[in-house]
Amino acid sequence: MPATDFFDRKNPVVYEGTESRDPLAFRFYDKDRKVMGKRMEDHLRFSVAYWHSFTWPGGDPFGGETFNRPWMHGGDALELAKQKAEVAFEMFRLLDVPFFAFHDVDVAPEGASLQESNDNLKVITDIFAEKMESAKVRLLWGTANLFSNRRYMAGAATNPDPDVFTYAVGQVKAAIDATHRLGGANYVCWGGREGYETLLNTDLKREIDQLGRFMSMLVDYKHKIGFSGPILIEPKPKEPTKHQYDYDVATVYAFLQKYDLTKDVKLNIEQNHAILAGHSFEHEVKLAFANDIFGSLDINRGDDLLGWDTDQFAMDVKEMALVFHEMLKAGGFTTGGLNFDAKIRRQSIDPDDLLIAHVASMDACARGLLAAEAMLADKALTGPLEARYAGWDKAENKAMLGGEMTLEQIADKALSLSPQPRSGRQEMLEGVVNRYV
């Protein structure tokens, strides 16, 4: 099947303005519109996730596939992967996105050996490289799937079997080599099974040390081959394991400090994972910026009524506005972007549903970005925040935090004070946000 026959649409999706009712037209995402001096496309840096868009068959724990994609059945696995690549690049063209991202086994079939798997990956990498010569799309990041195959049921880098650790190293080397060859801006490590089900059979310290060594070797290899982008770790608290070693931003930051990795390793943060860890998306983004480890975002959402990773397309404008407010304050992306680690629902079986989902979510993100820009211009949130902490701008108070005063001196100063509590004005600020979204 020619790639151009999979989607009904033949022309790229374009911006038509807020009056448009076409589900395959952008109403807010105007890629060339300037936001705080930079094009909207350059702020948002959208990326299509290869796995959910072209590899997930629409199944769930209670039912089989619903999509019946032509490249998922029959024939030689490598030839089907080539067909899938044709459809993928056609979709990148139709959405006019600047980036895509992939796992190794999503783009190329696993072979009977690591060598055969690596050879398959090289074949598809060659195809990608050829297509990228004439396409707009570039690679936001690549990664290795170290969680699906049964060999990784007890982890990859943290596995009690050194042979599994060794195999994982070989798989990651091939994946970062492919990412580097394609000019990837980042390389991601997602420890899908780097955790434990029970402490009864787990040497926790040993496993974390193994993970530290694994990451250190990867950083060394990155420098050896001249890969300029950061290595990204994607925090996730649970599912599939009961407790994962990359639980949340704070946990990963402690890990990076322990193994001296903060310079080369940053974070790829996902909304759904933040919620599963008991945090807001905004919290995780803000904490990553506060600790200088922010890298990129997987842009999706979970279902408030379900306690697991549903990977739905991001549609919450208010949530996006608050995240982008933090990002714009901090300068936004450098090598990162907004990767759609999201899948359409298993009832959305029409090919164009893939396009519609991305278009709707891109519009939601664009609305959030514009709201964030307006809030910053009006100092709607930054003004009250500055006023709340204004006392710390006085020289005598700066001295307390700057090491110029001892505990005794500060205690003596306290004897002449009678501080009174001041309102945090939370409800007022929540109302302010609502005026912009």
Radius of gyration: 24 Å
Structural class: alpha/beta
As for the CATH topology of the largest domain, it is: TIM Barrel
Unreliable parts = none
Morphology: globular
What number of structural domains do the residues give? 2
Overall helicity: 40-55%
- The share of residues in extended strands comes to 5-15%
Q: Please give the alpha-carbon distance between the first and last residues.
A: 43 Å
Largest sheet: 8 strands, parallel, barrel
Query: What order do the strands of the largest sheet run in, or round the barrel if closed?
Result: 3-4-5-6-8-10-11-12
The number of helical elements comes to: 16
- The CATH architecture of the largest domain: Alpha-Beta Barrel
- Name of the CATH homologous superfamily of the largest domain: Divalent-metal-dependent TIM barrel enzymes
What is the element string, with H for helices and E for strands? EEHEHHEHHEHEEHEEHEHHEHEHHHHH
- How many runs of DSSP E, i.e. beta strands? 12
CATH class of the largest domain: Alpha Beta
Mean pLDDT: 96
